Amino acid sequence: MTQRSAFRPSPAPLVRGVTVAVLAVSLLAGAGCARFKNRNGDALEGQPVETIYQKAHRSMLSGNWSTAEEAFKRLVAQYPYGPYTEQALIETAYAQYKAGQHDDAVSTIDRFIRTYPTHKNIAYLYYLRGLTNSSRDAVFLQRVWHLDPARRDLATPMQAYNDFSIVAERYGNSRYAADARERMAKLRDTFARYEMDTALYYLRRDANVAAIDRAKYVLENYPQSAYQADAIATLASAYKALGNTTLAADARAELQKVDPNHAYLRGNWPDYPGHLRRLNPFGGDASALKH
Questions:
Q1: Which of 18, 20, 89, 262 has the smallest C-beta neighbourhood within 10 Å, fewest atoms?
Q2: This prediction's pTM
């Protein structure tokens, strides 16, 4: 499978002219927020749009996502129109994504897409929505419970796939298209593994026809996935169990072409996890698949 590139997503490039204006006020902003406070103690109330943007952007650069988000929101509230507002919405979504506020990030992105459907950075917004959808609940599942993402609800990964597909197909010349395609390939493997886990569940319980259906689905819908050989091995095993020696032999011959070192050909596949491991919620992914 293609290795993930070193691409690092970041907020879309600032609209032309904004950077120059920001630099012009940077010295004033750096003098401290205290001098800008109004009678209510609000450091941003009534300040020029350039000053508010500078404060928010500096918070972004330091990784202070919550402070950046709040400042960008204040900018949008005080200055609802203009290039600063558009950029503030983009960076608000990015700050929310980085802070793990995935629902808020998607909401902000959807608002931007509805309001500015022809914006020059629209490809970035679809790409960022894909990143956000593919990250939902992944931290909890992978870092705390150590579960494979293929063994959870695939609704949000499927939405992420659709988002990346828009970037790759509709904005194929954008700087985000190549990485979107790589992420689509990884998601296809996730979907294929989900189907293969189900196929092996049926195979272990002698529901061989159901296992065959799942394996065929993988081969037809996720060709060239990391689980192509496992799907063929499932066909060989299920056909053999059903007594269909001809189809079993055909599947075995195909497997020898695709993966001559597959464990099925040595007679020790699938290697199902032990009973205790399957019962242990902290024991990692209890699957017969090794990828």
A1: 20
A2: 0.78
